[in-house]
TrEMBL record:
Domain of life, source organism: Bacteria
The organism of origin for this protein: Methylopila jiangsuensis
Molecular function GO labels: ATP binding; metal ion binding
Coiled-coil stretches noted in the UniProt entry, renumbered to this chain: none
ATP-grasp fold PylC-type domain residues: 128-263
InterPro entries for the chain: ATP-grasp_PylC-type (IPR003806), UCP016817_carboligase (IPR016677)
Name this protein carries in UniProt: ATP-grasp fold PylC-type domain-containing protein
A matching Pfam family: ATP-grasp_3
């Protein structure tokens, strides 16, 4: 019976490519979440009141899934997967009030030309647009995420491509909350790539918090305030940027992600207040800061399948998430799982997460080569 679940069974719906991090944050906030994504993996099922696997994030598939499992009027928080689909967001909003950026705000922030014009008017540093090929030009696909779509030099085939002049420096991101008038920064992180010949800018992971000098934090905060006020942005969001070498007071803003993103894994932890709870408050206009309960750094890295494979038969380490179901085979190049690490400094956390990622890939290679792995084969990687 469509929509037959009791209205009081859930506090909200979480919808996206993967909702595991949001579901975990919801559980930390004491919220009963209906999680709808493409995986409904064991971690998501553990944290959500219920996890439902949808076939796609298309309008037809999602509306059918929501009709079958969610009572009309249940608030919805959208994660990754809607950057290029404000029409799908609008369709969901007809049945479920959206807690987060509106479709119109997403449309403005994810249109490359519109964003470049807005940043210029707001006096926010951003890359120069490019219309012709060149060794210093990066071609991106509008509305895409994850970095795998970025190509250097020559414009790839296909619609929706736009060019930007390359900006050299350290890749960073700022996670913030917005209330339509100003922003509250949750933390800064450093990002890295996990390149392949066909996807040299594929997202690899992030570590944070990273230290930035107070004047730069203030400059970025003021830029975010102007951006939020100009776009009516509300809720959790992030902005990717480049920090140039040799100038610790400068930044270049590359992109704005008007939804909870990958660094939720980096900052939503310990005894700190749930970032989803702060997101919901921000959507109602309430911003509040929180002093981190932990001063260490945390890293999260994506492990991509080196070939079509499964993790079946491997003993799962405690420092992983998004572990696929036993009978699921992951296609080559697709995300296989997520690996975490904590340490006293960002550099140490990054080094540890890299070792853990390598250990997991080595275990997969050994198994493929016929080696029998001990149950505790990955346990030496638990600590620094």
């Amino acid at each position: 019976m469509p929509g037959s679940c009791r209205p009081e069974a859930y506090d909200l719906a979480l919808i996206g490519l993967s909702t595991r991090a949001l579901a975990r944050s919801a559980r930390r906030a004491g919220l009963r979440a209906l999680a709808i994504d493409l995986f409904a993996d064991a971690d998501t099922r553990e944290h959500a009141a219920r996890a439902v696997r949808t076939t796609a994030l298309s309008r037809r598939a999602l509306l059918a899934t929501l009709e079958a499992h969610a009572p009309a009027g249940l608030p919805a928080v959208l994660g990754a997967g809607f950057e290029n689909a404000p029409d799908v967001m609008a369709a969901i909003a007809q049945r479920h009030p959206l807690k987060g950026a509106t479709p119109e705000t997403v449309r403005r922030l994810k249109d490359p030309r519109a964003l470049a014009g807005l940043l210029a008017r707001l006096d926010v540093p951003h890359p120069q647009s490019a219309d012709a090929d060149g060794p210093d030009v990066l071609w991106k696909r509008a509305g895409a995420s994850g970095g795998a779509h970025i190509r250097a030099g020559s414009r790839p085939r296909g619609n929706g491509r736009y060019g930007q002049r390359r900006v050299d420096g350290r890749a960073a991101s700022v996670l913030f909350l917005a209330n339509g008038a100003r922003a509250e920064i949750a933390g800064f992180s450093e990002q890295w790539t996990d390149p392949t010949p066909s996807a040299p800018y594929r997202y690899g992971g992030a570590v944070g918090p990273i230290p930035l000098i107070a004047p730069l934090r203030a400059t970025i905060g003021a830029a975010l305030d102007r951006l939020v006020a100009a776009t009516d942005l509300v809720g959790l969001a992030s902005a990717d940027m480049i920090l140039p070498a040799g100038d610790e007071t400068a930044f270049t803003l590359l992109e704005v992600n008007p939804r909870p993103g990958a660094t939720l894994d980096v900052f939503d932890r310990g005894d700190d207040p749930s970032l989803l709870a702060r997101h919901l408050d921000a959507c109602e206009g309430r911003l509040w800061s929180a002093t981190p309960s932990r001063l260490d750094a945390h890293a999260a890295a994506v492990v991509y399948a080196p070939w079509r494979c499964s993790l079946s038969g491997l003993r799962r380490p405690a420092w992983t998430a998004d572990w696929p179901a036993e009978d699921d085979a992951t296609p080559k190049g697709a995300p296989l799982c997520t690996v975490f690490a904590s340490a006293r400094a960002p550099e140490a956390a990054r080094a540890l997460v890299d070792r853990r990622r390598a250990a997991l890939l080595d275990a997969l290679s050994a198994r493929r080569d016929g080696a029998r792995l001990a149950d505790d084969a990955l346990e030496p990687m638990v600590t620094e």
